[in-house]
Amino acid sequence: MRHTGFALLLALSPLPSPAEEVGKVGVDWFGNDIIVESIPDPKVQGVTCYLTYFERSVLDRLSQGNWFEDPSNAAISCERTGPVTLSDIDMSKEGEDVFRERRSIILKSLRIKRIYDAEQDTLIYLAHARELSEGSAKMAVSTVPLR
Fold first, then answer.
1. What is the pLDDT along the chain (147 residues), one digit of tens a residue?
2. In this structure, is residue 4 part of a structural domain?
3. C-alpha to C-alpha distance for 38 and 108, rounded to whole angstroms
4. What are the residues facing 88 on neighbouring strands?
5. 44-55 and 33-40 beta bridge pairing
6. Sheet holding 139-145, edge to edge
7. Is residue 10 part of a domain?
8. Are 21 and 39 in contact (CB under 8 A)?
9. What are the residues facing 53 on neighbouring strands?
10. How many Å apart are CA 24 and CA 119, to the nearest integer?
11. Which domain holds residue 50?
């Protein structure tokens, strides 16, 4: 019975938007790839982000000796893909997560955060790595003006 509350909390928590792989480009003979994913913003109808990131192959993981981790580098472009309709978005300077994906077993994740710039009436999408141990300065940004 104790787990019922936790399950209910998980069910009611907003989940980050699902990503759909729309492209995959091989970059070397080790089998490493660049993945392109389409990620619709779950709270802003009419905006889709395209995230690209590096995915290591099994051969590369074996040769480098770092089995459990992918690089944090990412690029992002967010575009209007239809009429834009905002729902209840976080208006704070910290914004809110739109997407997150693990890049290692425990310590690292790749995230997209949405921040609203009220003065410019613009949505800012920030792709960044979150690392538990040393942080990360690897990031990319895209904007969608709402005017």
1. 444 333 333 333 444 557 899 999 999 888 888 999 999 999 999 999 999 988 877 776 677 776 666 666 789 999 999 999 998 999 999 999 999 876 655 566 788 999 999 999 999 999 988 765 566 678 899 999 998
2. no
3. 21
4. none
5. antiparallel
6. 96-102, 108-117, 122-131, 139-145
7. no
8. no
9. 35, 74
10. 38
11. 17-145
7 in a domain, yes or no?
no
Give Cα separations from 146 to 38, 66, 80, 83, 123 (angstroms).
Answer: 20, 43, 9, 10, 7
* DSSP conformation letters of 61-119: HHHHS-TTB----EEEEEEEEEEEEE-S---STT-EEEEEEESBSSSEEEEEEEEEETT
Residue 11 covered by a domain: no
Number of independent structural domains in the chain: 1
State the DSSP code for 57: -
